[in-house]
Amino acid sequence: MKLQSQLNAAFTALLIVIMTAAGYVIYSLIMDLLIQDEQRQLEETGELLVSVLNEQYGTESDLRQFNEFLKEQNLQLFMYDRNQDAVLFSTMSLPVVNEFFQQNDFSANETLWEYGNERFVTSRILFYDISGLELILLTPMDDLEMVQQDFFNRLFLVFLIGVVAAVLLSYFMTNKLVTPLSQLKSQLKKIEKRKFNEMDRVKATDEIKEVEQGVFDMAQELQRYMNSQQTFFQNASHELKTPLMTIQGYAEGIKDGIFDEKEREKGLEVMVTEVNRLKGIINEMILLAKLDSEPSDSEPVPIDAKVLIDKVIDRALPIITEKGINFEQSVENNIMIVADEEKMLRAVLNIVFNGIRHANSKVRVQVFKKKQTIEMLVEDDGEGVPAEEAAHIFHRFVKGKNGETGLGLAIARAIIEQSNGTISVDRSELGGAKFKILFETGKEKS
Predict the structure, then answer these.
(1) DSSP code of 328?
(2) Among the residues of 193-260, which ranges form H helices?
(3) Pairing of strands 373-380, 336-340
(4) Is residue 219 classed as helix, strand or coil in its secondary structure?
(5) Euclidean distance between the first and final Cα of the chain, in Å?
(6) Helical (H) or strand (E) element with 37
(7) Phi, psi angles (nearest 5°) of residue 113
(8) Residue 180 has pLDDT above 80, yes or no
(9) Is the CB of residue 243 less than 8 Å from the CB of residue 279?
(10) Type and span of the H or E element at 269
(11) d(CA 333, CA 104)
(12) How far is residue 30's CA from residue 42's CA, in Å, rounded to a whole number?
């Protein structure tokens, strides 16, 4: 059974139960109200009669003389003497009076009396001047039941119209709710089959819109991930294949004796160089895999930013001197970064080495606190990062000009994000690239 049918059935069943219960309560309540209203009318009529009789006829003998007067009023009533427990006279025939007297307790203040299969509503009015004398007026329940039934028929018609309107509204609302879900199901099937380019946006509102946006974002991220994985394997195979082919070429040449002594020595040196390069690539790939699969394998501690940059300069000093780079640093005091010290040192080194390789003459490092954020900027005056490459410069095996393995920036990003930081690249005022690293103060690794 489809979700829309289930929702409609559940809503309709709930509506019928509520309306049935409400109808039963109203049906019972309307009879009580009708009885109370009828008693009120009987009481008003009886008080009016008693008032007239009290004013004009003050004794019991006088009252007996006006039996005919009461019969002319076209009312069903008894003149009852509570002291004698007897009916003095009535507008009804004697057999009827006797039957009433046998089936009902005149001395009890009961609201409803019975006569055969019929029921009557009663109302009692006391005479002021004659002790124990009461005027009892009656009206048959048949009239009230007819009013009750007529009211119920009207109520049932209103309920029926309400149910039809509610079911139509339920169908409209559930259709509005379920249709986007059905469309989302279709889009998920496309994701399952990796048909990302065929995905369409689903029109929805409120929470379903949030789910739709989440599905769309997930699909885009999954597509980017799959594309990056494909690019990674292509680049990785290329990076590994190149040194292996070089090693294979020299090894076969040496084995077949086609090189002389000098060329053989040169080949061995190239083979050692390529092996070391291959080893470096593999080590960095292993480090990246560990950063992705073992994010908890770190020991975050407070690191003084000034001490961290000093260590970076110490390790980068030989290449700075060799290239004649003007290295500037500006680090505010008492800035603490919570991270794994060894890994963070490697991340910053990778970014600084990248700046040195691409710089013409100048590299600048700044660390400062801005509101609740620690900012670290690494800038150079080189050619910068082209806008089309900025989106994937941190992906694996993506190398710029003069790049080495294409893994340095990917490792740096993995370490920084593992430390709850972010890294981005932009254009520097110096003319080259500007790498910006941000850390929220007081935010430790989760």
Answers:
(1) E
(2) 206-256
(3) unpaired
(4) helix
(5) 44
(6) helix 3-56
(7) -115, 160
(8) no
(9) no
(10) helix 261-293
(11) 103
(12) 18
- DSSP state, 95? H
pLDDT band at residue 307 using 50, 70 and 90 as cut-offs:
very high
Q: Is 278 helix (H, G, I), strand (E, B) or coil?
A: helix
Between 272 and 203, the higher pLDDT residue? 272
Enter the pTM of the model: 0.47
Is pLDDT above 50 for 359? yes
Mean pLDDT of 110-132: 81
DSSP assignment string, 58-116: -SHHHHHHTHHHHHTT--EEEEEETTTTEEEEESS-HHHHHHHHHHS-TTS--SEEEET
Domains of the chain: 3-148 (3.30.450), 206-293 (1.10.287.130), 300-440 (3.30.565.10)
Amino acid at 434: K
What confidence score (pLDDT) does residue 406 get? 64
Q: How confident is the model at residue 55 (pLDDT cuts 50, 70, 90)?
A: low
Are 232 and 395 in contact, with CB atoms under 8 Å apart? yes
Residue type, 367: V
> Which ranges in 193-205 belong to alpha helices (H)?
none
pLDDT at 378: 93
Contact 275, 250 (CB under 8 A): no
Using CA atoms, how far apart are residues 386 and 374, in angstroms rounded to an integer?
Answer: 26
CA 181 to each of CA 2, 8, 174, 177, 343: distance values in angstroms, whole numbers, following the listed order: 12, 16, 11, 7, 45
Q: Which residue has the tokens 């006391």?
A: 126
Q: What pLDDT is attached to residue 68?
A: 63
Which residues neighbour 147 within 8 Å (Cβ) at sequence distance 6 or greater? 34
User: In this structure, what DSSP letter does residue 196 have?
Assistant: G
Asked if 349 contacts 316 with a C-beta cutoff of 8 angstroms, the reply is yes
pLDDT mean over 366-394? 84
Please say whether the beta carbons of 204 and 180 come within 8 A. yes
Residues 177/2, Cβ–Cβ less than 8 Å = no
Question: Residue 431 pLDDT > 90, yes or no?
Answer: no
- Joined tokens for residue 21: 């219960």
pLDDT, average across residues 113-117: 85
State yes or no: pLDDT of 432 exceeds 50. Answer: yes
